[in-house]
Amino acid sequence: MKILVCISKAPDTTSRIAFTDNNTAFDQNGVQFIVNPYDEWYALVRALELKEAQGGSVTTITVGGADNDPIIRKALAIGADDAVRVDAEALDSLAVAKYIANYASANGYDLVMCGKETIDYNGAVVGGMVAELMDVPYVSLAIKLDVNGSVATLEREAQGGTEIVEASLPLVISASKGMAEQRIPNMRGIMAARTKPLQVVASEGINASTKVVRYELPPAKAAVKLVSADNVAELVDLLHNEAKVI
C-alpha cells in the first residue's frame, strides 16, 4: 500500500506572533517552526503503523521552500521512507491542494492522509480539496482507520456517538485526535533521516485564488477585577452592568 502524508510547518505555540508590511505579512523573525501536530501525531504515525502491519511505503509531501526541509527531516526521522517537497510558495489552500493532488494522481497513491487542520490557520479544507481534485472519496475528522485489502474502515465522532464509515481505496482522509499516539524520533531515526531521499519537485506555476488583505492580533485581555467573597452586592452589580456574555 502506497501512502502519501501531507506535512506542513506551523509556528510553535509558544512563539510570539507579529506582522510586518502594514500587517499584511506574518513576521517569521525569531519564530520556531514545528511539524503541524495534527499531521505528525495522527496522520503520519497512523500511516507508519499501517505500513508496519501490512507493508508498503510512506512518503511525505510538503509545499514550500527550502526552509521547510528541517521539519521534513523530522518526519523522516519519525519513520517516513522518503519525502517530496514541491518547490512553490504555499499561497493559499487551493494552490496547495492542487500541487498535492497533481503529485498524488501522477504517482498512484492508495491513501492520502493529512491532519484535520493546521494550528496556525485552522482552515481544515486542504484534504477535501485534494479529494475533489483527484475525484476520490474523502473522509474527514477520522479518529480511527483500518485497511483490509482495498477497503478502509474509519470511525468519526458524531453527536451522541460514533459514526463508522467504509470507503474503497484510493481515498483521502483527515486525521483527528485519537487516530494514533505521538512518536518521538530516536537517535537511529534521526541519523537515518539525513540520508533518506528528499525529492524536490519544480513548481507548476499554480496561481492563488485568494490573498491576505490584513492580519489583526486579538484585542488585549482586560484587567481582572477581584471581588471580596463577602461583598455579594458588588459582585451582583458587576454581573448586571459590566459582565459580557460570550
Short description:
The chain has helices at residues 37-54, 69-78, 93-107, 126-134, 187-193, 232-241, and strands at 2-6, 9-11, 19-20, 25-26, 33-35, 57-63, 82-87, 111-115, 138-148, 151-158, 161-168, 171-175, 198-202. With 246 residues, it is of the alpha/beta class.
Explain the overall architecture.
With 246 residues, the chain is an alpha/beta fold. The chain has one domain (2-218): HUPs (Rossmann fold, 3-Layer(aba) Sandwich). The protein is 28% helix and 28% strand. The strands form three sheets. A nine-stranded mixed β-sheet has the order 11-10-9-12-8-1-6-7-13, with helices on both faces. Strands 2-5 form a two-stranded antiparallel sheet. Strands 3-4 form a two-stranded antiparallel sheet. Strand 10 and strand 11 (161-168) form a beta hairpin. Helix 3 (93-107) packs across helix 4. The longest helix is centred in the first third of the chain and has 18 residues, at 37-54. The protein is globular.
